[in-house]
Amino acid sequence: MKKSYFLIVTITLLSIVLISGCLTSKHYEENGISFNYPSNWKTGVINDLPGALVGISESSQVDVKIFRYNKTNDTSLREVYINSLTNKSITLDEYCYKQISNTTLTVDGVLAYELIYQIGCNDTQTRQKIREVWFEKNGYIYRITCTVIPPEDFPTKNRSFNEIINSFHVN
After folding, report:
1. How far apart are CA 21 and CA 38, in angstroms?
2. What are the phi and psi torsion angles at 167 (to 5°)?
3. 47, 98, 146, 152: least CB-packed within 10 angstroms?
4. Is 113 helix (H, G, I), strand (E, B) or coil?
5. Which pLDDT tens digit goes with each residue over 86-95?
6. Whole-number Cα distances in Å, 28 to 35, 43, 54, 99, 171
7. What is the largest CA-CA distance in the chain?
């Protein structure tokens, strides 16, 4: 009886770990950046978006894009971030832009701005929730954009986003 109970508990715990993706991570280190990401995700080059360094995706419904922009001496990270907020509210208005949260955090030892928003009004538009993290390091501004379709899946995918953001390092 003891062996059966132990076996059931062991199998249950192992199943939970495997299903949650907590067992292993992969490590990315190119383009002057590094981070960990879930082992069942794939990385790829993004050629059609200015400033894009790499894309990481679980599927066509869940992805992360990392951008790097040159920082000019006359513009602060805060100004760039505020301009981005203003532009989003204008350009995404027809897609029912809704800001969920706007806060700060620390990425790679520096202050970062985090914006979470949702777009998509109805079934004719792709409903999605997006998490953007902006920070400045070594003369560049970095933006990490995490996207989930549909928005209802965001809470379960946010753990993977945290793995990438919390391990992110500028080399």
Report:
1. 7
2. -100, 0
3. 47
4. strand
5. 999 999 999 9
6. 5, 8, 10, 30, 12
7. 72
> Contact, 54 vs 68, CB < 8 A?
no
**Reading across the β-sheet that carries 33-38, which strands appear in turn?**
25-30, 33-38, 169-170
**Confidence (pLDDT) at 13:** 44
The first and second tokens of residue 152, run together, are 């209802």
Distance CA 101, CA 41 (A): 26
Nearest 5°: the CA angle 97, 145, 114 is 75
Q: Return the H-helix or E-strand segment holding 106.
A: strand 98-107
How far is the C-alpha of 118 from the C-alpha of 55, rounded, in Å? Answer: 20
Strand partners, 140: 70, 137
Residues 38/49, Cβ–Cβ less than 8 Å: no
Instruction: Report, in angstroms and rounded to the nearest whole number, the Rg of the chain calculated over CA atoms.
Output: 19
Nearest to 89 by CA among 70, 102, 106, 71: 102
- Of residues 170, 159, 103, the one with CA closest to residue 136: 170
Here the contacts of 48-53 (C-beta below 8 Å, separation 24 or greater) are: 51/143
Whole-model pTM: value is: 0.85
pLDDT of residue 23: 59
